[in-house]
Every structure is written in structure tokens, then in C-alpha cells.
Write a structure and sequence with these properties.
446 residues; mainly alpha; 20 helices
């Protein structure tokens, strides 16, 4: 029996039992990981709302703010691979607890900065603290779910970005507008304090709520464990003939760097919506901080729905590359058109909504591509390497956008650069990663 036939036979024997097992795993893991990512995203991007006050309080220019946003990724990039390799060695419980407690404490410390230099230091430390969380969770999910389900699973996880945008914006606006000067603290100081405490609590909870893998999950029966391990082992065997037996072998594959280049441009895209949307909305005609926070929730809410539809369709069709290309292209188009919304807040919201749909779907779909061909032994380090190299986009984009806005007085040049980069990166990945490289088994869910 050839490899393809054996995979189909394995699938046929387990189809009737797969759906309940994976639903059980989803309900056990995803809600908590989802909450953790909501907290992660709020703590990473709340600086975009805080800047509406602290830039004036501390005398920080637009270019300096852009540098402060981008320098976060210096620490993030340097420590992602080591963090993911530690997760593979020591397990998810300990690693996620360490990451979350550290980033919560660093986020709280941001309330004490009094200068641009201190802001830069704290942002680097926040990047170091957060390093490994997102790629760590991506790798962690590969230990539980076969690739045929991962677009939907990643969509559930990435939905946290949308929820963070829907609730984080209004919450940040409310804190800053209603608590400013309470007990001698400015609104932006209360923001970093109140939004830094929950990750510490959730990090401690992670140690007790997460299992390191299916084999360690005492909440799964032996039969359920066998179903999951059988599916995962079948995929492992299917990829064993490839050349990615280890991280060091995978790191020599040029495709890995083509994929990282595409993630680089998605990080550029994320910088626009995560760090500049409050400024875009304010510049388009909305001045009240609370109103900016409420309006900023609209793109994320619609974006969440669009992402779920696109990713579900990708899983049904077992097609990743063109679904990703469509999503990235939609985001690039929206960014390229954003300069037209300089004085019209309604158009700005429409374009930010298009951007949100494309960005969120791209993030979720992206990780179904490398995880569909990397071997288990290569996955942890390779995912972290792709993420860390790609996050250099998060370092450069805020500086490009901030500098061009400072020089020209508008966002146009920076946004055009980001849009062109996304189209280029997507094209390179489509050429470098052919569909036949992605080895996925179809799992029929009842």
C-alpha cells in the first residue's frame, strides 16, 4: 500500500471518532489561549491609545513614537527562537507562565517612564518578555491538531486580535478619559497599570490549566489520546521523506526565508492597523478619545467575521496559498487607499475594516502553510525563526511610517510602501512554496 492510500485508510478508520475528540480539545484549550492572546495584544498595542496623551506629556515627536513602537521588536526578534526551543524542551505550562508574568510586570512599569529614552528601554524589555508567546502557541497547537483543521483552529486563536480591538479600544479610551489625574496619575499611566495586571494572573493560571501535550492530558481518555496521536503520527510519517528532519536542516531551506519574507510584510500590515489606526481616525475628523476608542472597534468586529468565513472555506477546500494571497491582497489594497481618507472618517472606517478582514485572515491562514510541510522535529525552531525574521517588519514599519509622516505631514508614502511590500512578499511566497509541498490529510467531521 502506497503512502497516500495508507493515509486515506487511516483517516477512514477514525473519521467517526475524530470530531468529538477535537471538539473536546478545542473547548479545553482554545478559550484560555484565546484569553491569553487578547491580553497579549492589548498590552502590545495599548501604546497607540496611550500615545494620544503621553506624547504631549513627555514631549515625544511622531518619529520618536514610531521608533518606540518599532524597537519593541528588537528584543522580540532576538529571543523568539530561544524561547520556542525552551518550550519544546520544558513544556508549554512553564514557558507560557514565564512569558505572561514577565510581560505583565514590564507593561505595568511603563506607567513610570518620564522620557523617550526610558520608553525605548521599556519597549525593548516588553519585546524580550513577550518573545515566544505567539510562535509558541502556534507550535503548541501543532501538538494537538492535524493540519487539515489548523486554519479554523488558528482562526479561533487569531480571533483574539479582533476581540482585543473591539474591547481594548473602548476600554483604553474609557480608562484614559475617565481616570485621568485620579490620585495624581495621568490616564495613560492608569492604562498601563490596569491592563498589565491580568496577564500576571493568567500566566499563573496557565501553569495549572494547560497540559504539555495529548499524552500528558489527564482529561482525555486513553482511547481519545490514541485517536489524536494516530492522526498526528500519520502526518509525521508523511513528512518523514522530506529534508526537514531537524531545525538545523530546515534552516538551510530557502523556502523558509521566502515564507519569513511574507510574514515580514504581514507584520508591516499589522503595524498600520494596530499602532496607527487611532491616529488615522483622529486625523480624519474625530477628536474625542472615547469616541476614537469606540469607533476603532468597528473594523475589528467586521474583520473577525470575515476572517472566520475565509479560514473556514480554506479548511473545507484544503487550499491555503490562494486564500492567503486573496486576504493579503485585500489588506494591501485597503492600505494603498487609506491616504484618500485623510479628511473623511467614514471612508477611513470602511478602509480600516477591509484592512482588518485581510490582515486577520492572512495571519490565521499564514501559519497553516509552514506547519503543513515542516516535520515535528523542525517545527518549533522553524516557526520561531519565521516569526522572528518576519517581525523585523514590526521593527521597520513604524519607523518608516512615523518618519515619512513627520517629514511629509501625511501617511501616504509610508502606506504605499507597506502596500507594495505586501504584494511583493505574497508573490514570492506563492512562487517559492508550491501546493504539492503541503502534505495535508482530509478529516471528515460529523
Amino acid at each position: 500500500m502506497n503512502e497516500s492510500a495508507s493515509l486515506d485508510a487511516a483517516a477512514a478508520t477514525t473519521e467517526q471518532r475524530i470530531s468529538p475528540v477535537y471538539r473536546k480539545i478545542i473547548w479545553r484549550l482554545i478559550p484560555f489561549l484565546f484569553l491569553c492572546y487578547v491580553l497579549n495584544y492589548i498590552d502590545r498595542v495599548n501604546i497607540s491609545f496611550a500615545s494620544l496623551q503621553f506624547r504631549e506629556d513627555l514631549g515625544i515627536s511622531t518619529a520618536a513614537y514610531g521608533f518606540g513602537v518599532g524597537i519593541f521588536f528588537v528584543g522580540y526578534v532576538l529571543f523568539e527562537v530561544p524561547s520556542n526551543l525552551m518550550l519544546q524542551r520544558f513544556g508549554a505550562r512553564t514557558t507560557i507562565m514565564r512569558i505572561m508574568v514577565a510581560w505583565g510586570l514590564v507593561s505595568i512599569s511603563t506607567m513610570f517612564v518620564t522620557s523617550a529614552t526610558q520608553l525605548y528601554v521599556v519597549r525593548v524589555l516588553l519585546g524580550i518578555a513577550e518573545a515566544g508567546f505567539f510562535p509558541g502557541v502556534v507550535f503548541y497547537l501543532t501538538l494537538w491538531f492535524p493540519s487539515a483543521l489548523r486554519a479554523r483552529i488558528m482562526a479561533m486563536f487569531v480571533l483574539a486580535i479582533a476581540v482585543a480591538g473591539v474591547f481594548g479600544g473602548p476600554a483604553s479610551g474609557f480608562i484614559m478619559s475617565s481616570m485621568s489625574d485620579l490620585w495624581g496619575l495621568r490616564g495613560w499611566q492608569w492604562l498601563f497599570l490596569l491592563e498589565g495586571i491580568p496577564p500576571v494572573i493568567a500566566g499563573i493560571a496557565a501553569y495549572f490549566l494547560l497540559s504539555n501535550g495529548p499524552q500528558d492530558a489527564d482529561w482525555l481518555s486513553e482511547e481519545e489520546k490514541a485517536v489524536v496521536m494516530s492522526d498526528l503520527n500519520a502526518e509525521t510519517k508523511a513528512r518523514a521523506s522530506g529534508k526537514h528532519g531537524s531545525f538545523l536542516m530546515a534552516a538551510r531551506d530557502p523556502r523558509l526565508y521566502a515564507i519569513a519574507g511574507a510574514w515580514f510584510t504581514i507584520a508591516w500590515c499589522g503595524s498600520v492597523i494596530n499602532y496607527w489606526s487611532p491616529a488615522i481616525i483622529r486625523n480624519s475628523g474625530i477628536s474625542d478619545t472615547l469616541s476614537i476608542g469606540l469607533i476603532s472597534a468597528i473594523p475589528y468586529a467586521v474583520g473577525a467575521l470575515g476572517m472566520l468565513i475565509i479560514n473556514n472555506h480554506s479548511d473545507i477546500k484544503l487550499e491555503r496559498r490562494w486564500h492567503y494571497a486573496f486576504s493579503a491582497g485585500l489588506a494591501a489594497l485597503a492600505i494603498g487607499l487609506l491616504p484618500l481618507a485623510a479628511n473623511t472618517w467614514q471612508l477611513a472606517i470602511v478602509l480600516l475594516t477591509m484592512l482588518s478582514v485581510g490582515y486577520l485572515a492572512s495571519v490565521a491562514l499564514f501559519w497553516s502553510i509552514p506547519t503543513a510541510y515542516l516535520s515535528t522535529g523542525a517545527a518549533a525552531g522553524s516557526i520561531a525563526l519565521i516569526s522572528s525574521l518576519g517581525q523585523l517588519g514590526g521593527l521597520t514599519a513604524p519607523n518608516i511610517i512615523g518618519w515619512t509622516q513627520h517629514v511629509t505631514g501625511n501617511f501616504a508614502a509610508g502606506f504605499y510602501t507597506v502596500a507594495f511590500g505586501m504584494i511583493l512578499g505574497t508573490g514570492i511566497m506563492l512562487i517559492s512554496v508550491p501546493a504539492k509541498l503541503l502534505k495535508e490529510r482530509r478529516i471528515v467531521e460529523q
